[in-house]
Amino acid sequence: MYTKYYGLTSKPFENNPDPLFFFMSNKHREVLASLTYGINSAKGFILIAGDIGTGKTTLIHVLLKEINPDFIIINIINPIAAFNDMLYHLAKKIGVSCKGKNKIDLVEDISNKLEKLDQDGKRAVLIIDEAHLIPDESLEDIRLLSNIESEKRKLIQIVLVGQNELYNKLQKEALRPLKQRLLINRHLEPLDKKETRDYIKHRLNVAGRRSQLFDQNALSRIWEKSRGIPRVINQICDNAMLIGYALEADTIGPKIIKEVIKDMEPWHRHKKPEIKIYISRFKWLGATVSAALLVILLTRYAGNKTYYQQELEPVKKSFSSNKNDSTMPLQSVLNKIKV
């Protein structure tokens, strides 16, 4: 919609792990270099963690283009699956039959196959995204899988990629053996203010835009809201360009960014005044109904005053005769009332 208006060949701020739009910040460069080194050097266990939306999955897609194309990649994107399912997937990828085998026999066959692949100069790389969702029992099984090794090196490289909660999980006593095996442990940080500006410029350039689109004040507001999280930056910029196109704005300034940020706020923040109005209306309605009922009752009582006095006279006499008797049954009082 806005691509032609702003002279773009594609949408620059899609939240897809497209390596073409990958921005190599200093931290991303360091983490990518550590991953590549760890896999090529057969270090075994590697952990990459970071906050939501910092670009971990995109980094993995870039990694797959960096490592040896002869390596066999097993990419697990559903870590909630049982370890046996992961094991069967691994076996299938390296050409090992699972039919009629128990777990022990299957692991032995996988080990033999991995040793042969290593002799042929190939290597298996198991990448598990969203690793913070892996059950503790499966993490321990994965650790045991890393025991497959030759006299010289690990025969399978395991890369755990997850959110920061993964660090908390690894603090558990039961997972200490796994934590001790992590030879490379890297944390992916958000972008700083300058990197955020460069990130936006980079993605616009990749999409075909050469001149500046967001002014300096707009860029500052984007960083203040996103705090350098690429996913949030993408969301703000994409919506800002849509509004800019609707307003026929040649450049995007802070007013448009402010409008986008306002729309990103949780819906209930905008609904609070409306809810208060409804509550006020209900209170008014309740008071009106109560007043109307009171008028009806008073009118009825005024028209039948003699009747009600006559009916309540036996009750008054009962209370007078039993005023010292606090145990007078309630039912006996109610029975005297004839309504």
Task: Tell me briefly what this model is.
With 339 residues, the protein is α/β, with parallel strands linked by helices. The protein has helices spanning 26-40, 56-66, 83-94, 103-119, 136-145, 165-169, 176-180, 193-206, 216-226, 230-247, 254-264, 267-303, 305-321, 330-335, and strands spanning 45-50, 72-76, 124-128, 156-162, 182-188. Helix 1 packs across helix 2 and helix 3 runs parallel beside helix 4.
* Beta strand %: 5-15%
Q: Strand count, sense and closure of the main sheet? A: 5 strands, parallel
Measured as a percent range, the helix fraction is 55-70%
Radius of gyration, CA atoms, in whole angstroms: 35 Å
Average residue-wise pLDDT: 82
Structure annotation, total helices: 14
- Give start-end ranges of low-pLDDT stretches: 268-282, 322-339
The third-level CATH topology of the largest domain is: Rossmann fold
In the CATH hierarchy, what is the architecture of the largest domain at level 2?
A: 3-Layer(aba) Sandwich
Integer tally of domains: 3
- In the sheet with the most strands, the strands line up as 2-3-4-1-5
- Which homologous superfamily in CATH is the superfamily of the largest domain? P-loop containing nucleotide triphosphate hydrolases
Outline type: elongated
Number of E strands? 5
- CATH top-level class of the largest domain: Alpha Beta
Distance between the termini: 75 Å
- Helix-strand category: alpha/beta
SSE string, helices as H and strands as E: HEHEHHEHEHHEHHHHHHH
Task: Explain what this protein looks like in three dimensions.
The protein has 14 helices and 5 strands. With 339 residues, the protein is α/β, with parallel strands linked by helices. It has 3 domains: 24-188, Rossmann fold; 193-264, Helicase, Ruva Protein, domain 3 (Orthogonal Bundle), CATH 1.10.8; 304-339, no CATH class. A 5-stranded parallel sheet has the order 2-3-4-1-5, sandwiched between helices. Helix 1 (26-40) packs across helix 2, helix 3 (83-94) packs parallel to helix 4 (103-119) and helix 10 packs across helix 11. The protein is elongated, with a radius of gyration of 35 Å. Residues 268-282 and 322-339 have low confidence and may be disordered.
